[in-house]
Amino acid sequence: MFRLAAKYVTISKAASLIGEKAFVLKQWEEDFCDLITIKRDEKNVRLFTGENIEFFQKIKAYKERNLDNETIRQLLQQQSATARTGLNSQDVTELKETLSKITSLIESNQIKSMSQMDERLDRLEKTVVSTVSEKISETAKLQTEIARYEFSDLQDMITSLEVTAEAERESFKEEVLHERELAQRKTDEREERFLAFVREHQNKQERMKQEKSGLGILKQILSFAR
Question: Which domain holds residue 184?
Answer without folding.
Answer: 85-189
